Amino acid sequence: MKTLETLTFECETGNYHTFCPISCVARSYQKIEDSFFLVVGTKTCGYFLQNALGVMIFAEPRYAMAESEEGDISAQLNDQEESKRLRLRIKRDRNPSVIIWIGTCTTEIIKMDLEGIAPKLEAEPGVPIVVARANGLDYAFTQGEDTVLAAMTHRCPEHGSLRHKQKQDLVYGSDIPPVEPRRDNRKGKESEIHPPLVLSGSLPSTVASQLNSELERQSVRVSGWLPSQRYTELPSLGEGVYVRGVNPFLSRTATTLMRRKKCRLIGAPFPIGPDGTRAWIEKICSVFGIKPHGLEERENLVWDNLKDYLRLVTGKSVFFTGDNLSEISLARFLIRCGMTVYEIGIPYMDKRYQAAELALLRNTCREMSIPMPRIVEKPDNYNQIQRMRELQPDLAITGMAHANPSEARGIDTKWSVEFTFAQIHGSTNARDVLELVTRPLRRNNKLEHLGWTNLSKQTTTQLFTN
Amino acid sequence: MKLAHWMYAGPAHIGTLRVASSFKNVHAIMHAPLGDDYSNVMRSMLERERDFTPVTASIVDRHVLARGSQEKVINNITRKDKEQRPDPIVSTPTCTSSILQEDLQNFVDRASISSESDVILADVNHYRVNELQAADRTLEQIVRHYLNKARGQGTLDRSITDTPSANIIGISTSGSHNQHDCRELKRLLQDSGIEVNQVIPEGGSLRDLKDLPKAWFNLVPYREVGLMTAMFPEKEFGMPYISTTPMGVIDIAECVEQMEKHINAWASILLKEKVNHASYIDNQTKFVSQAAWFSRSIDCQNPAGKKVVVFGDTTHAASITKIPAREMGIRVSCTGTYCKHDAEWFTEQVQGFCDEILITEDHTEVGDTIARIEPSAIFGTQMERHIGKRLDIPCGVIPSPVHIQNLPLGYRPFLGYEGTNQIADSVYNSFTSGMEDHLLDIFGGHDTKEAITKSLSTDTDPNWNLESQSELNKIPGFVRGRIKRNTENFARQKGVTNITVDLMYAAKEASGA
């Protein structure tokens, strides 16, 4: 394979494996404590969630399926009446502050007007309903969260007008009194005067506060997160508010924030890995005209702490088949760690939203003097497997459908979904990323001498057949 | 619309894929949106499958909604045909393609003109049948297709094998304990002097299907998958089948007696002698299987009369109801199944072996029933296991739905004589663990919890401030202790007595955990 001097973008057939975007409920319902997610779909959706969420299913989760039956499909049953009945039941059993309807492929095809029904139901006193169309026709995996957050944006109170917020709640019939946004004065230290900054992306609260304190060190105060821990605490948005996503898959949310809420988007790489975190902070500081201090020392310290892992990964090659859109940031971090990346598969590449990240990737490749990886949008898994066979990467970061078969063919594999559910943001968690990346390498180092690398009877030409 | 977050049986296409990917060299193409190929994950993960699951999707996206699939499905089929030359390609509809109402049959017909492989459209309706019914239907469809094809080509061999032989129908991938059951069935047949002609669908080859009628009879161990398939050759060639599940000592005997009957129908002509398995059954029951002796032993007096609740698929729930009730003297308070479509058969089977019968797909109804009855043990699916956990009632897991624990590496059949041992163990162990818990409760529990968590060191503990305390509480319970210890050690090293949130993160970075 020829080495590349510049980043190349390719687009294949889109025949790849990924999670359905409705999987966003798994993270989101845990993040937003007073929410209830209702997935309006079929048995197929339910089956996926039930199996993908594993043991969470047994923990009485705050989500459920509204399973369409034949009567719903053929419109013998009235969508609005059905939705109303379910909403009453959810309200009675769980009393959430918000119900989030997740539209699926089915609701798209039968053109169920969720956006139209929701305000009608809201008009009666009850629970606000947010509609997010997170379906497999349009989106992949983590993009589901993007649609939820984009929909949530419209429910954020207007910046600088408390009266407006109350009015809005009246319109939407919320019976929960508006809550004053929590003021965070824990250091008692006056923050530098800068416009409000709202971060988007649902992160575990520990990771969110780690990033808050990283910024606080530079006297940047985060005035809110989208989403907040509770629906009733959504941050205020509006003209003059600066926003930045912490995840690479939030382009729809970013667009909504800019176009509908008139917020200013800060274009920065994502805080994944110490390099990404530093670049992220630097960019935010520069927008606010703050001179960052101590960032280089801090980054070096983190790299220093990673030495034992770096020794394992340096010089190794990696292949991303692509399924969750964090691939660019992860690849950039791994290249900085000394790895070579052959291919970055990615479901969808928003070159504008990820511009700063792509630039950092380009620079990182130059500085580490390794060839630029090829970026393959909408990859074709079958072709990718052929390419992997040819390239024999030291590590494949891929979905569970291909993980075991690849291992059986002697290719070390890391299951990509783990990067979505593990804590990978900020300098503090850089080690966790490498912990994941090196796990197969460490395990297989121990097994190498046994000589059981190839455990499949399939010949290389009949890759898929059994 | 129905509110649900758990279902016992999956959607129809899963059943079709299970059957298709069980056969050798069959490729399935789903007409589905992105993300619906989740069955590949399940197979690769639950089955710990080494090879790539032969299932791909012809993706339905916005463009398909706007102007139809057009050439897409056909191109995908012909592409797969060129890449891998599967024997047939099975085109599978999903819930999405059901509502799109595209003429898949037309696509399939056109694709089969240009491809070497046979192309079959799975005839399943997503909104009418579930996973199990679809699996049953698809297996029948494939077998029918190949038998009719062989008949058309004149290659169908109607003569039966010289020595007694049988087909085992219904062993499939992701069917829990199926592999072990299959091995046990082969042994049972071998012990009875019967050769295995073919096992389908698992590991079966479509090129051999034409020889399916050479067997003397068919054995269908599971009611859910295979019954339709067995009925087809019975009707066409008068080939008999046995649908008695050889689970539990009594039903195994019943099954072996039926085999004897089918063999003797031909044996007197072909072998000039009749077989008699009475002594085999007697010996196996009394001395090879431990189950009969076990239920007679002192140990088994304790569970006698205790209440249990059983819930599962028809095959397992019916057998696991009959085994404790008539072979161990245990009282089955309630038994149930989620296979609504087969409720009549189920009711007939368990009639007289239980106090009440529950037919439902709603897990909350099962949970409520268990809570009301308060049995000493439950035998149910993974869902009932969790209901049991919540109510503090031990649960023995019977399939399905499957879970990675239901696909054990070790030899754990449910069927045959070894199966009886496994079931006896499982029943007995559920009760003893229940007893232990009660005794522990009575005598105040294990008295060691405090001693383990309390540190023995004499160091003065650093002080956690309110924020760091609440931050600590956000950390998941199972790592909290470790994080707390690490942070405190770090604080001691630094000579800090007050732990703040920042210090916590610093400790995390330093310790690298």
Can you characterise this structure?
The complex is a heterodimer of chains A (466) and B (513). Chain A is of the alpha/beta class. In chain A, 42% of the residues lie in helices and 14% in strands. Chain A contains 19 helices and 14 strands. Chain A has helices spanning 24-31, 43-52, 70-73, 79-94, 105-109, 114-123, 143-153, 162-171, 205-216, 251-259, 273-287, 295-305, 307-313, 327-336, 355-367, 381-391, 400-408, 417-421, 430-447, and strands at residues 8-11, 35-41, 63-67, 98-103, 129-133, 197-200, 222-226, 242-245, 264-265, 317-320, 340-346, 374-377, 395-398, 413-415. In chain A, the strands form three sheets. In chain A, strands 1-12-11-10-13-14 form a six-stranded parallel β-sheet, sandwiched between helices. A four-stranded parallel β-sheet of chain A has the order 3-2-4-5, sandwiched between helices. A four-stranded parallel β-sheet of chain A has the order 7-6-8-9, sandwiched between helices. In chain A, strand 13 (395-398), helix 17 (400-408) and strand 14 form a beta-alpha-beta unit. Mean pLDDT of chain A is 86; it is low at 163-191. Chain B is of the alpha/beta class and 513 residues long. Chain B is built from 21 helices and 16 strands. Chain B has helices spanning 12-22, 38-46, 62-67, 72-84, 95-100, 104-114, 131-153, 178-191, 227-237, 249-270, 278-288, 291-296, 314-328, 343-350, 363-373, 382-391, 416-442, 449-453, 466-474, 477-494, 501-511; strands at residues 2-4, 27-32, 55-59, 88-93, 118-121, 165-171, 195-201, 217-219, 241-242, 307-312, 331-337, 354-359, 377-380, 395-397, 463-464, 498-499. In chain B, the strands form four sheets. In chain B, strands 12-11-10-13-14 form a five-stranded parallel β-sheet, with helices on both faces.
